Input
Amino acid sequence: MTGIYIHVPFCKRKCPYCDFYSVEEDKGLMEAYICALKRNFNRYKKEAVICDTIYFGGGTPSLLEPFEIGEILASIKKNFVVTDNAEITIEANPSSLDFEKLKEYRRLGVNRISIGVQSANDSELSALGRLHDFEMAEQSVISAKEAGFDNISCDIMIGTPRQNTENLLDSIRIVSKLPIKHISAYMLKIEEGTMFDCDWVKANVADEETVCEMYEKLVLVLEGNGFYQYELSNFSKPGFESRHNLKYWTGEPYLGFGPGAHSYFNGKRFFVSRDVYEFISSDFQEEIIEDDDPDKAEEYLILSLRLKEGLSFLKYTQLGGDSQRVYNKAEIFEDAGYLVRTEEGISLTTKGFLVSNGIIAELLC
Amino acid sequence: MNQDNIRNFCIIAHIDHGKSTLADRILELTSSVELREMEDQLLDNMDIERERGITIKARAVRLNYKALDGKDYVFNLIDTPGHVDFNYEVSRSLAACEGAVLVVDASQGIEAQTLANTYLAIEHDLEVLPVVNKIDLPSADPERACNEIENVIGIPAMDAPRISAKTGENVREVLERIITDIPAPKGDPSAPLKALIFDSYYDQYKGVIIYVRIKEGSLKVGDTIRLMATGAEFTTVEIGYMGAKNLVPVGELHAGEVGYIAASIKNITDTRVGDTVTNRDNPCDKPLEGYKKVNSMVYSGIYPADGAKYGDLRDALEKLMLNDASLTFEPETSIALGFGFRCGFLGLLHMEIIQERLEREYNLDLITTAPSVIYKVNLTDGSTVYIDNPTNYPDPAVIASAEEPMVNAHILAPSDFVGNVMELCQDRRGVFKDMKYIDENRVDLHYELPLNEIVYDFFDALKSRTRGYASFDYEMMGYAPSKLVKLDILLNGEVVDALSFIVHADKAYARGRRIAEKLKENIPRQLFEVPIQAAIGGKVIARETVKAMRKDVLAKCYGGDITRKKKLLEKQKEGKKRMRQLGSVEVPQEAFMSVLKLDE
Output
């Protein structure tokens, strides 16, 4: 079944570390953007695509008023076959949430919310340029729970300016006590061209060795608190894995709408250019093909090794991969503690996740 | 042509003293080349020669000059390589002449190559005509230069023409002095043919063209010639002389003349420089003196960076060898570098030139192993082996004694730098012989040095210790006993054959440690820790470690955008291509190159 991703490219203010596509919020632009989304959904009507996940990502989707989310969801339901138990997620910034809004979102069918908490430490939050402190983030989580959200996720960042191992683990302990089911923990990557690409940030983030240690300890603390790792950066209570995000890593199809959105549909990978003006002024979003016939075995290897479950030799062979070769190549990495190898497949260890690029390259070459 | 009206001469000079510029002016003055056709430094027509200001191949040109006495003269100007690597070629070019024009830079005075080349000319009984060049420079001191020529070389120089080859000033005086000072050739034109080969090159239409100086007798088209050293025989198809712009065929060549022979010769190894050409049907009784087969002095492994280019490298070497009989090569296999060639060179410059031509003219990306000299190893069973590849160095248990080649070196430097130069020579295991003052400011230091100490970076080190003022020349002087050891480099416990080398026992420790450090800098962190060891026999003398990579991950693979992940992977794959896989260790090409330049 297909997942639908809506890229909402609006923010009150750009976070200095973020390189996802977004522009400053503008009511007129947002209205035109919603019209454009609807035109694009309509294009798929004839295909009767069955979809079981919808994901509002951004940008800051929670800048959209409930009626706007309602309009978009109604249009999706008109043009796609949405299953009854569909997982519908919205990403939210604590600064743009209140109880009423949350209640409305919930009423419209949104059943999962991912809140950008990032840290429980206010000094770290201000260094990240966030528009909220921890108290506000905590309040958002509690409000979401009260508004009827059972499936709540929080984002945490690792290796941010001013953060040390102790602070991070404190944040983890505090956040995992909140009434949530899922945590995404990302290591900060200083992206070229962002405001974080500067000397101050580089001087105030932990060194590589410390970041690795942070990650390793975080994995242990989260597991101790009942959040099991299922992907390199994702942890959940049993049964609360993000069904939408899992599609990315299991080779299932997804359709992306909005500027900068990526798709994997009908065997092709394509994306929409990062330009909201072009998006709203075109009849249909121009889909730029990046790969019209991806090597399925290779992609499976790359993506499955992001998952804790890892790669299954059976599936790899079915997709045309040479499992014996991978099995043999994996031996030295197993010896070094980077991965676990069985007759059924291989999966990376925590230490292995930290160098997954290198390992994947070695296994593929 | 009457021999009295022929002058055969060469120009000798230290690098950059203006040899080629003077040759250009002479060509101009003899109207051999129209001005508009002049490209600066006409005789040096290889790119590398022009850029480095050196002559690699000998060349010759015939010029017509109407002298002030009203008579017409034929000049044969033979351009010689000035560098010690090509000493033998130089000696054969000199043997084709009666005189040499010695060019000395008025601001620099005598340098190491000036001495070496002049002594060579005097050894060949050439009349030396000193010329002081670059008098247009503000720093010129012609008086001092003349004094140096008289005091150091011991030939009269007070009436030497003082010229500027650059502006053309007084160049005509040089031409007149060539007529008056350099003797005309005196060979018996009716004797059996005796001609000296002083160069040869391959022409794709005519086969090998040999350049000869007819010493005695004469030669005409259709004669069958014999090359006395190789015994090869050919029927001449075309003979002639070398015009400024092209070869000019003539019917006959006579004693005293310089010219070329084309005889459908396919293989340049048949035509050795220094060999004597005679007539098969009327041979001379004995060949000219001085012929010898040149031997390679320095060896190095040359490998294509991309293993698939092995065939291209072989083709390129074969093509270069068509014009350079002194280049030798044979296939070699290295565990580290794959398939390549063990190449033999006359010396370091020759090696550099070949490498540069392979890269430039044939577009090859190369990995070169450290140059090695030929070691003489006496074994316990009484036999002797010569080793040009460290990989083949015998087990120490069967070695009775080892010897290494030595050179006689002269270093000319301002006296302020004597301390620095001596320190360097000492460090390179030099044995001080003597020191002479050329004038009050400059000295000639004479050392005996092991050749293996100068093949790496001696000249660079010398230049940097004398702010570029020193000049350096050397000649081979045979073998001397030495305490040699083979130093191996191990990566992850495995010997990397391409990095092994032979070194004096006293220097092994320092060299080993430096190489280990250099490798550590140049080997990127990988998924596993990489121990680097330098070892003699089984004994480790230096150790470094490249730590394992800790973090190489794309944490956020968001919104289904896996493009970034794939691009990263492509980049990684691309990077791997530039690496050599040695067991489980990936070594970039730069690492191999870096150990060749330990001083940087």
